[in-house]
Design goal:
The protein is 26% helix and 22% strand. By secondary structure, it is of the alpha/beta class. The chain has three domains: 58 residues, Beta Barrel (OB fold (Dihydrolipoamide Acetyltransferase, E2P)); 137 residues, Rossmann fold, CATH 3.40.50.300; 64 residues, Ribonucleotide Reductase Protein R1, domain 1 (Orthogonal Bundle). One of its GO terms (biological process) is ribosomal small subunit biogenesis.
Length: 292
């Protein structure tokens, strides 16, 4: 009898497939090996369960998404984590992660962590991203604030965490999954940034439902291959205005009659969000000139 399950771990030719509460240690059918079909963590697979928790993967279901970093299939939620202090939030990096996630077809949500250090530090930023249309949660692993809201947000999804080092991604996972005890890295006082501490890819079960990768995703070091005219669609608050621009191909940069720029002047779109957009746009344009 065949069943459909999710690959939650791959190691040394063994694929661990989750079916409800059961985990099966599966080999791969010879046909798939001959066809050199790569099986990724996160893949939905058709498999034949055998006795003693063993099984054989017969086929791979079509993927909805495929990430390169980490190499996980079918991720549909990116939780982008920034801390309110130590280190303070950098909205340009945050926007960079948001663009990466949306370009990959993954719905982003934002978590401002360490709010026990002073929630007032991100009140204005919080409101800007909420008004733009992103789910935003404030959390603290010290006093438990926001953890239930995060569990609800991630329930039923395959999630990857993203964000700079030192913001508490591993601590959040430890708080969301009791007994996990992932190694965490303290923020370097000298450098003001954290050390990378997670090394392998595995999908962890969240209490109440959902899976989350234990390895951070995306990177602040790159932008995906985006055409300059595509960037604006990844700024959700621009969408309500861009049809009123004079030009259909408006980049919301130097063109006259730009409804987005008028909305910025009127205070309807955040100035810092627009400035981040322009900085990213110039980077995209430079990459086009260099490589395309």
């Amino acid at each position: 009898m065949h069943h459909e399950g999710t690959v939650i771990k791959a190691c040394g030719g063994h694929y661990y497939v989750s079916l409800g509460e059961e985990i099966y240690d599966c080999a791969v059918r010879g046909r798939l090996r001959r066809e050199k079909q790569q099986i990724l963590v996160g893949d939905r697979v058709i498999f034949s369960p055998h006795s003693c928790g063993q099984g054989v993967i017969e086929d791979i279901c079509p993927r909805q998404t495929r990430l390169v970093r980490p190499p996980v299939a079918n991720v549909d939620r990116a939780l982008i984590v920034f801390s309110v202090k130590e280190p303070p939030p950098n909205t340009f990096l945050l926007d960079r992660f948001l663009v990466q996630a949306q370009h990959a077809g993954v719905n982003p949500a934002i978590c401002f962590n360490k709010v026990d250090l002073g929630e007032e530090n991100i009140k204005d930023i919080y409101n800007v991203y909420r008004r733009a249309g992103y789910p935003v949660v404030c959390a603290s692993t010290r006093d438990g604030r926001g953890l239930e809201e995060l569990r609800t947000l991630l329930k039923g999804h395959i999630t990857v965490l993203a964000g700079p080092s030192g913001v508490g991604k591993s601590s959040l996972l430890n708080a969301l999954i009791p007994g996990l005890n992932l190694k965490t890295g303290e923020v370097s006082r000298k450098l003001g940034r954290g050390r990378h501490t997670t090394r392998h890819v595995e999908l962890l079960r969240l209490p109440g439902g959902g899976l989350v990768a234990d390895t951070p995703g995306f990177s602040s070091l790159y932008l995906p291959e985006i055409k300059r005219e595509e960037l604006g669609k990844f700024y959700l608050e621009f969408i309500a205005y861009q049809n009123d621009c004079r030009f259909n191909t408006c980049l919301h940069f130097q063109e006259p009659g730009c409804a987005v720029k008028e909305a910025v002047k009127a205070g309807e779109i955040s100035t810092f969000r627009y400035e981040n957009y322009v900085q990213l746009l110039q980077e995209v344009m430079e990459l086009e000139r260099r490589y395309w």
